[in-house]
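Teaching note: in complex prediction, the entire set of molecules is handled at once rather than each chain in isolation. The prompt given to students was simply: 'Predict the structure of this complex.' The entities are:
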Amino acid sequence: MGLQGDFYQLLKEQGYEFGLSGQAGAGQQLTTATTILAFKYREGVLVAGDRRATAGNMVMYDRTDKVLEIDRYSVMAIAGVPATAYEMARILEHSFKYYRRTQLQELSFEGKLRSLSKLLKENVAAALAGTGAVAPIFAGYDPGQEAAKIYFYDILGAEFEGVEYAVSGSGSSTIRGILHYLNTWGEQPLNAMPEEQATVQALRLLTSAAEFDSATGGVNREAGLYPVIKLITAGGVRMMPDLQLRSLFESKVSRSA
Amino acid sequence: MYEEPYRWVEAVGNRRQYLDDQLKEGTPVVGVAYERGILLMTMSKGTPKLYEIYDRLALGGMGHPADLERLRFNLLEMAHVEGFNRSASDVTGSRLVKYGIAPVVKQAFEEVFKAPFIVKILLAELGQKAGKDGFLTINYDGTFEEKSQYAVLAATSVVEQKMIEYLRQQSMVSLKDAVDVAICTWAVGDRAQRLALEDGEGHDEAKTGANQQLIDAGTLYAHLRRCMVEKTVECALLDRHVQGPSKYRTLEADELGTVFPTDLSPSLT
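The expected output is the structure of the full assembly:
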């Protein structure tokens, strides 16, 4: 019966197939998503993403949510092909719920990481064919160990721990250096920053990424479009409201303020 | 020999007797709707009897734990696959029961060479707004009933009727009201079952609901105090005010203490 509590296995038994065929979309310009970041701050972990989705040099959508809440304590930020990434997120969300409800206990943080790793490995053919590459960041708060955790993955499913921070997507090279600088020589390390300061840094980092990477969307004040920023603490996942982002952007980020 | 119609009817009748006998010492389950959602309540000895099924669905059951587990897994599988393939809004208690487990339970009941499910099930479904909450109960023979406001499970339909009669006279607004009404209803059912067991079918109070109004709160509380010595109160909520899609939560001891009737609070520890 359901001793394993494995929802993905259950889906497969019912004929579900995850992943696109390796050759189906080769040569097409696929929609991709761009800059995501996560870093530990004083109370937990902050995960942020810009909102632009592109296909080649075309902006497909500028309201994409790339920071997906998987359960009360974990978030997956996506860079790569959204179709595949959203499907992964849906599978994970159902898997974690199914495990909790069947086994009457939460899946461990390590178990959650393993679930994502398995999905990425099943997606290798599509990733290598260029039709479904996803390089996500998985971050969350482990209530058992009372610690914030960040992991990032390559498109083949290799798992790496981001001890203090992690970045992914086409704009990540720009902000990786800034994060290193801030964490090493800033007034205080990232993990000592209070929530507001951490949020301001995330806004500045994504604005910098947008400056140098056309596939990363910046802040669009006229349209009221701000990055998605989610904070995960011992109390669970919380989304930073747009009103607060607007206020912080205008007072601490915009040079015209 | 069961190929003969009469033998088959006789065999099914025997199963009914067998199942009634197996369930006679089962623990009643009570479900009541209140302003914030639905409260499910029972008392258990170790093995839990209340479970989360899906975002807005909860299960209460009585009977054999292994059979309850099998049906719980059936429900969980159906609900999650449906929620994944379609959407959470398409996972409804009505569909899960009518097209899912009720036919399975009925088939097991009527296949006289196989073991039936020794269970009764109560499925609670939280509506999008107050007044839209619902309940489904499934008997061991696969018959099901849809109810609103409240529903109960007990060893016999006579006991269930007594509990419903008691519930009809109550009003539930707050969680405190709901807990008080639920535990008293449970006591009405459990007390009636015990009387029936002690005195057999001939016991007047066990057989009819006529003198239900005579059972005062003091008698019910005294019965509850005795039961709480050996059993644990189990309460679960489908709470409309819980953040996020999953509305199920259990009432842990600390919170239960704040909403439990003052007279009974010391028995909780």
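Point out the following to students. Strands of chain B lie at 29-34, 37-44, 50-54, 57-63, 119-125, 134-138, 144-147, 150-153, 232-239, 248-250. Chain B has one domain: 5-18+27-254.
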